[in-house]
Amino acid sequence: MIHGKNLIGFEQFANGTQTFQTYNPADLRELPELFVQATDAEVDLAVEKATAAYGTYKKTSGTAKASFLRAIADEIEELGTALIERASAESGLPEGRITGERGRTVNQLRLFASVLEDGSWVEASIDPAMADRKPLPRPDIRKMLQPVGPVVVFTASNFPLAFSTAGGDTASALAAGNPVIVKVHPYHAGTNELVVGAISRAAQKCGMPDGVFSSLNSSDFTVGQRLVLHPAVKSVAFTGSFGGGKSLYELAQSREEPIPVFAEMGSVNPVLLLPEKMKGETENLAATIAGSVNLGAGQFCTNPGVLVALKSNETDAFKSALVKQVQALAPQAMLHENIFKNYTKKTAEIFAETAVVKLSESATGASTLKGRPAVANITGADFLAKPDLVEEIFGPFSILIECADEAELMDVLKKFKGQLTGSVLGAGDDFRKFESHIRVLQEVVGRLIFNGVPTGVEVCYSMHHGGPYPSTTDSRFTSVGVDAIKRFVRPVSFQDAPDDYLPDELKNANPLNIWRRVDGELTRKTI
Amino acid sequence: MIHGKNLIGFEQFANGTQTFQTYNPADLRELPELFVQATDAEVDLAVEKATAAYGTYKKTSGTAKASFLRAIADEIEELGTALIERASAESGLPEGRITGERGRTVNQLRLFASVLEDGSWVEASIDPAMADRKPLPRPDIRKMLQPVGPVVVFTASNFPLAFSTAGGDTASALAAGNPVIVKVHPYHAGTNELVVGAISRAAQKCGMPDGVFSSLNSSDFTVGQRLVLHPAVKSVAFTGSFGGGKSLYELAQSREEPIPVFAEMGSVNPVLLLPEKMKGETENLAATIAGSVNLGAGQFCTNPGVLVALKSNETDAFKSALVKQVQALAPQAMLHENIFKNYTKKTAEIFAETAVVKLSESATGASTLKGRPAVANITGADFLAKPDLVEEIFGPFSILIECADEAELMDVLKKFKGQLTGSVLGAGDDFRKFESHIRVLQEVVGRLIFNGVPTGVEVCYSMHHGGPYPSTTDSRFTSVGVDAIKRFVRPVSFQDAPDDYLPDELKNANPLNIWRRVDGELTRKTI
After folding, report:
1. Which of A14, A70, B384, B498 could form a disulfide with A5 if both were Cys (CB 3.0 to 4.6 A apart)?
2. Which residue in chain B has the smallest CA separation from A493?
3. Which residues form the Aldehyde dehydrogenase domain (chains A, B) (predicted)?
4. HEC string of A365-379?
5. Is the pLDDT of residue B161 over 90?
6. Which of A141, A450, A478 sits opposite B495 (nearest CB)?
């Protein structure tokens, strides 16, 4: 079944000599198939095919692109249990979780299809000519978003489907009208290959151009670096570590023509526990937090890595409850040996800090790659003296910062760097009383959550999954939800263009019946 | 009248010892006033005041910000002839041009005021909760754009008013809710000071916070560099040379937290002259092009620096007509000795190239700083062999690339780097016949103009003034028109936020009656 080759346009290539295998993190069993790393020539060929395909694909209608995305979703579902089993085997994630993630993946594809069918996403804007304007006539100016060219997608380790081969980055880049080249995550090469087959079949069934999609295997940095440096590549999407995202960003900036890198690099996602809430629901709160910390073995970019509270008897009670909860948690297999080793090393390091008190870890010990859930404690004063202590530890870990008073709490909140999310849990008068604190937190987050945990990211119109640096490289764009499409477009204005040259979105007759801004007013009317 | 000091918030500072003067490029006469360069401490103070002001200003309502912008416009008009005379004296530009530019400046401020009064620009989006959704309930998610923090504006040399102290960058950054620090252009320090006074009076009359606006004098790079590297500065706008923009961009990327730099760096703005058009209107066409080349002594980022045509008898006739037109042009004073020297040097260099034929220059010779309009000629083959020959020469110069046939024309168009604009002049069947050529040009421009010259940039909703690199550092954003406001904002999502915490734009009752996307549908309805 699994052939281990690269897909470049509609053709398979395996001219390289370097191979790699994947393995199951749950039992450390190596999976038998060999994946052949793409050669330099294959990388270049993928970009050339993408560039050629772009000429056709950028002109493809919204409805045709929508059919393509729907066909990808259908083909992924057609893969059935083979995909679920393979993704589970390569990630160590339970089949239930993978099944849910497949649902999210096909829903995302269909959501972008519906956005394309609606058509209004292009932000069409028309300022008709004013021939009689003084001192000079006004020309006719029309504007809309257009695609940018080949996009390189680096797939994520922690979402083998929803942030991977046919995940949100690929779906939004294809929806925008750009060919996509996927740099395969070496942990999930088999899962990738199955999904690549689905995309390729969908592209051929829908008459999409050869080169609209390619997938390149790689177990080191060479393929990704060559892709990012290729002059014909116009944009890059990445989900992963701060180190990885930062290097790709710097590489892209070093080009003669710098290009955007949308790197989603995770964060500590501070959770502010307010006093009234602490009073009422200590046990519930501890259970909710512990569950969020250990969800997916803590391997979410929205994992609650930091808790913040005021010192009080209630906070002490919360700590006791949290200790109990964490002790009872069952460790889960982490995604990879490197991730497990890193988690074990980082938690050991932070526990060795004199300012840090280890509160608890799960009673069940770590076995194979199972990361042991753990929580720790630090005073606000110690955190303020050494804020760099509190950095993301990828895994089921969280540290509680206990503040002496409201002023110290404010200072602590002001120390946080850019975050994907910030959560505030309050009751009674909490939100009003701590409003100025919450507004400080709002300033450094992409999403502000009230009475909820940060894990769980809705795929919808209003989602913003993109916080200030260093949580992402570009806080102006989201990697989740409908507006993720805006990462891979740029506006173009047309001045006094003949109606038949204009894209349908800007023609006088508004043949697509989309919302347009005409002289600044939203309308569906014709010109 | 002119005091030469820095304005930091509402206070004047002049603790520095380094001073500079401005002079009139039309007669090389030095203007008497001394301007005191800002010290490091003054730079830091401006950023501190801006940061403090941000806390208040970001919460200021749209209507209050609109009143502020309108008050700035009124105060600028109140300056009367003093401003016109000073700006003309410091730029060498005729008073008529400066009066027109003042009109554009106050119109821009009032346009942004109207955008704020309307309120819909924040892209409010609401996905209400679905408590019954399976398998999990959907939380309430709402999103809108919010300001980012202190913005540094580097003012342009070629627009002493409209792209300067109270120009489009300042207007859009203030409109978005960000304090602004202007790094004064040393050529126009007196003009700046008059406008700074207007902004300061407007801010005080409207009760805006101290620090919402500051202006720092500088005749070297130190002040600008310190500003860009200050951790509390969140965004930078610049209009000027490629070298200047690129250094600021790289400086901003070198920070621990990289920040956006919106640098508008100009381009050669190719003008494609198509055969049918050439046949009918040789004389008119030559007059139009010559006028556009010499407009404002060619010192526009949209100056038509390159003409492209097919070799033909008509093109020969066009060249003869262009030669006559250019010879008859009157040289105008350039903005500064450096600009004039650079123009003279660059034109001499390109004329010395063996592949380049000097077609014509104005009969009137250069005197003081008057740049002599000139046009040159190169074959398509020679351009393809050495495309770097054709780079922007800031001033009244243009080079005609004559292509042997349609295939060579295509190759030439494919060689162009990112451009602010591309123009196509055609008649009869031209646009249809050359559609594939035009679409190649479209791919590298921010604005595609049909039967018009690139000079003249409308300030409207549909304007996109921002082409692919190297014409700007970020082709996704415009520096002219309403959407310029989007440079200085980022989206934030609110999840399950109490109604009274939410900004008015996202409250259930829609108290501002703005357009919002609710479950993906545009509406003004309440929730």
Report:
1. A14
2. B447
3. 17-474
4. CCCCCEECCEEEEEE
5. yes
6. A450
Nearest to B462 among A126, A461, A463 (CB): A126
- Which CATH class name applies to A6-265+477-487? alpha beta
**What are the pLDDT digits (tens) for B367-395?**
778 989 999 999 999 999 999 888 889 99
Question: Which residues in B477-491 are b (16+ Cβ under 10 Å) and which e?
Answer: bbbbbbbbbbbbbbb
Query: How many residue contacts between A and B have a Cβ separation below 8 Å?
Result: 178
State the Cα–Cα distance between residues B182 and B47, nearest whole angstrom. 11
Q: Please give, rounded to a whole number of angstroms, the shortest distance from the CA of A212 to a CA of chain B.
A: 18
| Closest chain A residue by Cα to residue B112 | A520
Q: Which pLDDT score, from 0 to 100, does residue B391 have?
A: 86
CATH number of B43-129+140-265+477-487: 3.40.605.10
Q: Any idea how long chain B is?
A: 527
Nearest residue to B437 (alpha-carbon basis) of B426, B446, B428: B426
Which of B141, B448, B462 is closest, CB to CB, to A127?
A: B462
- Chain B, 318-347: which have a CB under 8 Å from a chain A CB? none
Q: What is the pLDDT of residue A134?
A: 87
Each residue of B287-299: pLDDT tens digit? 999 999 999 899 9
Interface predicted TM-score (ipTM) over 0.95? yes
Let me know: does B460 contact B168? Beta carbons within 8 Å: no
- Of A306, A366, A304, nearest to A341 by C-alpha is A366
Mutate: best of A459, A462, A483, A524, partner B, most B CBs <10 A:
A462
The residue behind tokens 């023509």 is: A257
A126 touches chain B (CB under 8 A): yes
User: How would DSSP label each residue in A450-506?
Assistant: ESS-S-----STT----PSTTSBS-TTS-SSSGGGGGGGEEEEEEES--TTTS-GGG
Q: What mean pLDDT is predicted for residues A139-152? A: 98
Fold for B271-450, please state it.
Answer: Aldehyde Dehydrogenase; Chain A, domain 2 (3.40.309)
| Residue of B462, B492, B522 to mutate, interface with A, max A Cβ within 10 Å | B462
Report the range of poorest mean pLDDT among A5-14, A70-79, A385-394, A395-404: A385-394
Amino acid at A135: P
User: Residue holding tokens 């040159």?
Assistant: B376
For the question of residue A391 being annotated catalytic, the response is: no
Nearest to B431 among A127, A249, A498 (CB): A498
- In chain B, CATH 3.40.605.10 sits at 43-129+140-265+477-487
Give the pTM: 0.97
Q: How far apart are CA A473 and CA B207, in angstroms?
A: 36
* pLDDT at residue A365 tops 80: no
Delimit the CATH 3.40.605.10 region(s) of chain A. 6-265+477-487
pLDDT band for position A44 (cuts 50, 70, 90): very high
Interface of B with A in 3-62 (CB under 8 A): none
Concatenate the DSSP letters of all residues of B226-257 into one string.
HHHH-TT--EEEEES-HHHHHHHHHHHHTSSS
Average predicted confidence (pLDDT) for chain A: 96
Residue A366 scores a pLDDT above 80: no
Residue ranges, comma separated, of all CATH 3.40.309.10 domains in chain A are: 271-450
Respond yes or no on whether the N-terminal peptide bond of residue B491 is cis (omega within 30° of 0): no
| Residue A460 touches chain B, beta carbons under 8 Å | yes
